[in-house]
Write a structure and sequence with these properties.
- The protein has about 160 residues and is mainly alpha-helical.
- It has one domain.
- Helix content is about 75%, strand content about 0%.
- It has 6 helices and no strands.
């Protein structure tokens, strides 16, 4: 929580400082023009990259796979788009990094590893024992501790 508070205080101060310095160097109207131009270019890049990611997700779903990477990349794209619409040069640089495929994929991998660690730590905290977490021993049908965990049934795939 402190990180977010610090982020919402530090980033605007940095943005204002950079905007003032750029405005003094090239002029106020040119600075405003650059901010608007970066937003326009960013929105067009966002549209192209978003459609590309959506097409990859649909292809994976057609192959019967879960488009996990594409979903996380979509989140990174959304954050990048929001940063590009925020006036300022620092947020624009971060936003453009979210749109470039190489850096977007790195951000997505970083997010997925972070979410995996959080999910595993929460699961370990709520697990009844290491055996149920690691699935080393299958639960027994007569065990009351696992009475609701097993559902017997048949499966047939129809395409």
């Amino acid at each position: 929580m402190r990180f977010l508070l610090l982020l919402f205080i530090v980033i605007p101060v940095i943005e204002i400082t950079v905007l003032i310095n750029v405005g003094q160097a090239i002029g106020a109207w040119y600075t405003v023009g650059l901010v608007l131009l970066s937003a326009f270019i960013g929105v067009n890049m966002l549209r192209y990259q978003g459609l590309s990611t959506l097409a990859r997700a649909q292809q994976r779903m057609n192959e019967g796979q879960i488009p996990g990477n594409e979903m996380v990349e979509g989140i990174v794209l959304a954050v990048g788009g929001a940063l590009l619409l925020t006036p300022g040069f620092v947020t624009d640089v971060i936003g453009f990094l979210c749109l470039i495929p190489f850096t977007r994929q790195r951000f997505a991998r970083l997010l997925m590893s972070r979410f995996t660690i959080v999910a595993m730590s929460q699961r370990q905290g709520g697990a009844e024992s290491d055996d149920t977490l690691n699935h080393q021993q299958p639960p027994r049908h007569g065990d009351p501790k696992h009475s609701g965990d097993i559902i017997d049934g048949d499966f047939r795939r129809e395409d």
